[in-house]
Write a structure and sequence with these properties.
It comes from Aeromonas molluscorum 848. The chain has 2 domains: 262 residues, 3-Layer(aba) Sandwich (Aminopeptidase), CATH 3.40.630.10; 211 residues, 2-Layer Sandwich (Alpha-Beta Plaits). The protein has a 6-stranded mixed β-sheet with strand order 1-2-6-3-7-21. The radius of gyration is 24 Å and the shape is elongated. By secondary structure, the chain is of the alpha+beta class. The chain contains 11 helices and 23 strands. α1 packs across α3 and α5 crosses α7.
């Protein structure tokens, strides 16, 4: 198998190969950060780290470019850790097994980390390349973007001198982003109420094989949510007296759940009817989602009967609330055709020692849209007897249609490739909105190579798009105007 560094442009793929070799899931970026620091120091570059772990690396302007406006080139260091159920992988210790498949690079059974490893590789390649012409340059690599935007929240004013920010955390060649959605986590807790199990047969019910994906950029694609599909089937089983012992699904609030499972006790007299119902709903789901979920599977396996069950009252309140919980696109934008304005993702369900925990991620281009879904979610789960706390709110990035750097990137794209790019607003949480708090005068834009299946084990990056991303990045840096 050819190494990634055999691809072109060689320098960017060399760094991405190094990034894949060093574990760096969210909140575990220290090893990668140390490697980058050591490398930058060996190159004679100035490096500093702030209190939340962000790295800032400075590269002086090339001769004759000292009077250009200073640029901050930015990416985040962490990746989303998702693996298929049959893949044994410890993201804290194991490297990503990346390989070339036709025109794409992907990974065996796990997320690839092209989000945002590809952008990070581009930043490092700019630092390493001695032939690029650019003005004063700072590279900002932030921490924990995927699970809390810790680095962006903690970025302090005065650390950076640049006036233009080029964010590399976009995932579509031919699109330039000038705004993004804000978001907030909904943390829902049902106090655990258990009773002793009665007579019956134990089963585990699983919904699996779904595509999942990014809960922002993929939310409008109509993919199945394993949590919602599992709950729908369990609600249909109410007349059969099926009792719930444990329920879990999804692992991240910003990934569309690919798998969900429940441990059940089925009355002996209802076993045959329940098996028939599971088969019926497997067929229903496969028909409804045939165009987007070719590998959807509903699996029922007999196992030891559980000794403890959720109380009748908790099971009813929990399943009713999860069935009614909003999920998916709430509203499409009127101002920007084809862009999701407001959405929510029922991302995580866990049965813990003292509670059943549910987490949703609400996104919107407008604070008012986000607040409306917050109210909806709080009202629903309050009626169901659960607590609902909202945490980690981050602002959107309001579009500036008169942005000089957006115009520069658009014109550079046209010069290089003969077409105008689509200037877009992305329904995902870029860090740019938070940066405005510490650096309100930054002129910002976001672009990157084509990535498919981000936040899922289907993640892959398009090799020709990486070449175009690199050409665009270099051209933009060369065209930055005089200050």
């Amino acid at each position: 198998m050819a190494p990634l560094s055999s691809l072109s442009p060689k320098l960017i793929w060399h760094f991405f190969e190094q990034i894949c070799a060093i574990p760096h899931p969210s909140k575990h970026e220290a090893k990668l950060s140390a490697w980058i620091t050591d490398w930058a120091l060996s190159e004679g570059l100035a490096v500093k780290q702030d209190t939340v772990g962000n790295l800032i690396i400075k590269k002086p302007a090339t001769p004759g470019m000292e009077n250009r406006t200073a640029v901050v080139l930015q990416a985040h260091m962490d990746m989303v850790p998702q693996a298929n159920a049959d893949t044994q992988h410890d993201f804290a210790t194991d490297p990503i097994d990346a390989y070339i498949e036709g025109e794409w690079v992907t990974a065996r059974g796990t997320t690839l980390g092209a989000d945002n490893g590809m952008g990070m590789a581009g930043c490092l390649a700019v630092l390493a390349d001695k032939n690029i012409k650019h003005g004063p340059l700072e590279v900002l690599l932030t921490t924990d973007e995927e699970t809390g935007m810790t680095g962006a929240f903690g970025l302090e004013a005065g650390w950076l001198e640049g006036e233009i920010l080029l964010n590399t955390d976009s995932e579509e060649d031919g699109e330039v982003y000038m705004g993004c959605a804000g978001g907030v986590d909904a943390n829902i807790r049902f106090p655990l109420e258990q009773v002793a199990a009665a007579e019956g047969t134990g089963f585990e019910l699983q919904v699996k094989g779904l595509r999942g994906g990014h809960s922002g950029v993929d939310i409008h694609r109509g993919r199945g949510n394993a949590n919602k599909l599992l709950v729908r089937l369990l609600k249909a089983a109410d007349p059969l007296g099926v009792r719930l012992s444990d329920i879990s699904g999804g692992t991240l609030r910003n990934a569309i759940p690919r798998e969900a499972r429940a441990k059940l006790l089925v009355p002996t007299a209802s076993v045959a009817d329940f098996k028939a119902l599971v088969d019926q709903y497997a067929g229903i789901y496969q028909t409804e989602l045939a165009a987007v979920e070719a590998n959807l599977t509903v699996l029922l396996q007999e196992q030891d009967a559980p000794s403890q069950l959720l109380s009748d009252d908790l099971q009813r309140r929990l399943l009713d609330a999860l069935m009614a919980c909003p999920n998916g696109v709430i509203r499409m934008s009127d101002a920007i055709p084809g862009v999701t304005e407001t959405s929510t993702n029922l991302g995580v369900i866990k049965t813990l020692e003292n509670e059943v925990y549910v987490q949703c991620l609400i996104r919107s281009l407008h604070d008012s849209g986000r607040e409306s879904v917050e109210q909806m979610t709080r009202s629903l789960f309050s009626l169901a007897g659960a607590s609902c706390e909202f945490t980690g709110a981050y602002p959107g990035w309001a579009p500036n249609v008169n942005s000089p750097v957006m115009a520069l990137v658009r014109n550079s794209y046209q010069t290089l490739f003969g077409d105008l790019p689509n200037v877009m607003v992305i329904h995902a949480g870029l860090e740019c909105g938070l940066f405005k708090g510490a650096y309100p005068d930054w002129d910002m834009v976001s672009f990157g190579p084509t990535i498919r299946g981000a936040h899922s084990p289907d993640e892959r990056v398009h090799i020709p798009a990486v070449e175009r991303f690199w050409q665009l990045l270099v051209h933009v840096l060369e065209q930055i105007p005089v200050k």
